């Protein structure tokens, strides 16, 4: 990243813990674990990743005032394989990959809910834009796609595809 003003916003995970403790957490924060905690088989383990996620989540959950207005979105950068038994939409010129898990930790989410709406990583941006009333990032980004509509005959394949959800119905 060559733009110093953008680079200034990339901070260490220790800054996240400091911001939680000092009530200075920004409205949106993306946290990526160091490779040793990222859960990739080559240089990490799933238990290290789970411990990292638990540490981040527990830091926020332990602050009831902060957690009351927070949604923690936990996802992975890929599904880890080439096969998926579920429907894959032809979203755009990049295509879409295999499904990946998304865990939402928040008092605003219905406990134990499993949602089958079609989402991808662009859904997180779409959620941020909708939640804060922001315009889409660009005319070509997936966050411009409509929210999926489904038929009773097949609740997993959007009838208005390509479409991705905005996470607002969780």
Count of DSSP H/I helices = 5
Beta-strand proportion: under 5%
Helix content: 25-40%
Instruction: Walk across the major sheet and give the strand order.
Output: 1-2
Please tell me the total number of domains. 1
CATH fold call: Alkaline Phosphatase, subunit A
Mean pLDDT, nearest integer? 86
SSE-based structural type: mainly alpha
**What is the CA–CA distance across the termini?**
34 Å
Can you identify the CATH superfamily? Alkaline Phosphatase, subunit A
H/E topology pattern:
HHHHEEH
Query: Count the strands?
Result: 2
| Rg (C-alpha, Å) | 17 Å
Task: Indicate the overall shape.
Answer: globular
CATH class: Alpha Beta
The CATH architecture name reads 3-Layer(aba) Sandwich
Report the uncertain regions: none
Which sheet architecture does the biggest sheet show? 2 strands, antiparallel
Spell out the key features of this protein.
Alkaline Phosphatase, subunit A; single chain; mainly alpha; 5 helices; two-stranded antiparallel sheet; 170 residues
Describe what this molecule looks like in 3D.
Helix content is 25%, strand content 5%. It is mostly helical and 170 residues long. It has a two-stranded antiparallel sheet. The model has no long low-confidence stretch (mean pLDDT 86).
Write the layout of secondary structure elements.
Elements: H1 4-7, H2 13-21, H3 46-61, H4 64-67, E1 72-75, E2 102-105, H5 122-131
Antiparallel strand pairs: 1-2
């Amino acid at each position: 990243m060559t733009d110093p003003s953008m680079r200034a916003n990339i901070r260490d995970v220790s800054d996240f813990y400091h911001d939680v403790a000092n009530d200075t957490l920004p409205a949106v924060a993306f946290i990526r674990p160091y490779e040793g905690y990222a859960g990739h088989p080559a240089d990490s383990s799933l238990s290290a990743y789970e411990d990292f996620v638990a540490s981040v989540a527990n830091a926020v959950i332990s602050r009831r005032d902060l957690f009351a207005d927070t949604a923690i979105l936990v996802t992975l950068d890929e599904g880890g394989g080439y096969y998926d038994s579920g429907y894959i939409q032809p979203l755009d010129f990049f295509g879409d990959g295999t499904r990946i898990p998304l865990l939402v930790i928040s008092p605003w989410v219905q406990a134990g809910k499993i949602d089958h709406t079609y989402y991808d990583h662009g859904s997180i941006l779409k959620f941020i834009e909708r939640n804060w009333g922001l315009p889409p990032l660009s005319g070509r980004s997936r966050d411009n796609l409509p929210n999926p509509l489904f038929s009773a005959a097949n609740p997993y394949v959007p009838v208005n595809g390509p479409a991705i959800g905005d996470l607002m119905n969780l």
